[in-house]
Design brief:
alpha/beta, Aldehyde Dehydrogenase, Chain A, domain 1, 16 helices, binds nicotinamide-adenine-dinucleotide
Length: about 500
């Protein structure tokens, strides 16, 4: 990580210009700062990190590397804003989300280009990122219709009611791969539920969150309700330890998810930490060749395989060679730089290519080789679509998360062997079965050890209101992160038991 220090400036620009690029050519943008108490500010540390456009390998600007003092300032501003925001009626809080949805739609083209530049994904993939985020905003807009409590006369003259109360100051920490969608898994629920929220974007892609902060201000969100503290590990640890923060949602790798879950819980916080994945697609001989092959290719190479729901293993059951051949053919036809974007950074390219080399050394066949890929005029970070055949489940490429455009094919003879391979994975995010038999589909779907399963679906992400979340080492904590599970995570139930006059002729607690 290359960091540098610049002199702190009291003249921090308070307006964010629109991102001007309308093509993949390199474009500079602003420095990504903290948004605290309704103002843009420099980090107290004076430290910054270059934000590299992965397609070009060149810095678009720099991001603040904040520290514990910046977290303190954000918590103080959030605490000050909380009483007023909690007292704002739910239906008025939801109106901010309605306006935010409209603003995202108005700025869609600009935001798509910005995301594509900071993350390296294609324009179409950037649009998908924002559209899925908007779906989550729609869920937040619906909370006035969903968030009612309950009440019941539990005895003569005695009534119990439950309401869902905000927690106070909450925080979210997000990964690089979906700069708008993943923050929007949390924001519309946590904020509409009446909390104040501090987001720590990925230091590799801070711009989506900068624009979200600006658009939320435009949508009428009061200062202090939503804040950004930019940076890396130092900020994450300060958030986990801060006594003023009640709950943290995290999305990222399993290594960090597990550590953070333990650290935040030890500090008495409510924690929900989503981790990495190794998603298996089981393919049997009666699967439709064209649909299956094209789904596998879209799932494995969309966003250059940098999706927690990407298919990274095909478990090929019996004679499915026609499907494997078609997958290889379609993978070879992908135009790098147009159909598939770049890899987030140089280190990731080395990691991904290392997995390919290691699998080859251990006897895997490289059907399609994406190593040393280049895109003319775009000298950034690239790996082409790669298909590895004859992978075994114990090779690193067969069991570890690669997080790149590499599909490993594991050959087995029976359906039960395929299910056992999926079940033995330490991860449990997504898994699918490809078949034209209802009975096979049901048999497999009922046995998959994953939170999000599919039948003939390559990326079985549940659509809202069906919530997002995996099992096993893909998630630490209880419940899912979106939908009503998200609402229950970011709120706490208050029960009120009431009695007035005794019923005539009755006793109090009869
Ligand atoms: P990452 O774990 O490296 O980073 C995630 C966040 O944690 C970032 O904000 C980063 O600044 C911070 N961080 C990194 N290292 C840290 C450390 N040592 N201590 C404290 N904080 C740290 O993940 P990434 O590379 O940004 O994203 C890719 C990973 O995220 C993959 O493993 C992918 O599967 C996972 N992911 C999971 C889901 C899901 O829903 N389960 C969704 C998207 C991405």
């Amino acid at each position: 990580m290359v960091t540098h220090t610049v002199a702190g400036s009291s003249m921090v620009p308070q307006s964010i210009p629109a991102f001007a690029a309308r093509g993949y050519g390199f474009a500079e943008y602003i420095d990504a700062r903290n948004w605290i108490g309704g103002r843009w500010s420099n980090p107290s540390t004076g430290r910054w990190l270059a934000i590299e456009n992965p397609r070009h390998g060149k810095a678009m600007g720099q991001v603040a590397l904040s520290g514990a003092d910046d977290v303190d300032a954000a918590v103080a501003a959030a605490k000050a804003a909380f009483p007023g925001w909690r007292a704002t009626p739910l239906k008025d809080r939801a109106q901010v989300m309605f306006r935010l949805k409209g603003l995202l739609e108005t700025h869609m083209e600009e935001l798509c280009w910005l995301l594509s530049h900071e993350n390296g994904k294609t324009l179409a993939e950037a649009k998908g990122d924002i559209e899925k985020g908007i779906e989550c905003i729609e869920f937040g807009c619906a909370l006035p219709n969903l968030a009612q409590g309950a009440q019941l006369d539990v005895s003569r003259g005695v009534n119990c009611e439950v309401t869902h109360e905000p927690l106070g100051v909450c925080a979210g920490i997000v990964p690089f791969n979906f700069p708008i969608m993943v923050p929007l898994w949390m924001i519309p629920i946590v904020v509409t539920a009446g909390n104040c929220f501090i987001l720590k974007p990925s230091e590799q892609v801070p711009y989506g969150a900068v624009r979200l902060a600006q658009l939320m201000k435009e949508a009428g969100l009061p200062d202090g309700v939503f804040q950004l503290v930019q940076g890396g590990r130092e900020v994450v640890e300060a958030l986990a330890d801060h006594p003023g923060i009640e709950a943290i949602g995290f999305v990222g790798s399993t290594k960090v998810a597990k550590l953070l879950y333990a650290r935040g819980a030890a500090a008495g916080k409510r924690m929900l930490c989503l981790g990495g994945a190794k998603n298996h697609l089981i393919v049997v001989p009666d699967a439709d060749v064209e649909m299956t092959a094209s789904n596998i290719v879209a799932s494995s190479y969309g966003c250059a395989g940098q999706r927690c729901m990407a298919s990274s293993v095909v478990v090929a059951v019996g004679p499915v060679q026609r499907i494997v051949d078609r997958v290889a053919e379609l993978a070879k036809a992908i135009r790098l730089g147009e159909d598939m974007g770049s890899i987030i950074n140089r280190g990731s390219v080395a990691r991904i290519e290392g997995y390919i080399a290691e699998a080859e050394q251990h006897g895997a066949t490289v059907l399609v080789d994406g190593r040393d890929a280049h895109v003319a005029g775009n000298p950034g970070f690239w790996v082409g679509p790669t298909v590895l055949d004859q992978v075994s489940p114990d090779m690193p490429a067969g069991c570890e998360e690669i997080f790149g455009p590499v599909l490993s094919i594991i050959r087995v003879a029976t359906l039960d062997e395929a299910i056992a391979i999926q079940n033995n994975s330490v991860y449990g995010n997504g898994a699918s079965i490809y078949t034209s038999s209802g009975a096979v589909a049901q048999y497999v779907a009922q046995r998959l050890e994953a939170g999000m399963c599919g039948v003939n679906v390559g990326v079985p992400v549940p659509r809202e209101p069906f919530a997002f979340g995996g099992w096993k080492a893909s998630k630490f904590g209880h419940g899912d992160i979106t939908g009503m599970d998200g609402f229950h995570f970011w709120t706490r139930p208050r029960k009120v038991t009431t009695k007035w006059a005794p019923a005539e002729g009755g006793s109090w607690m009869s």
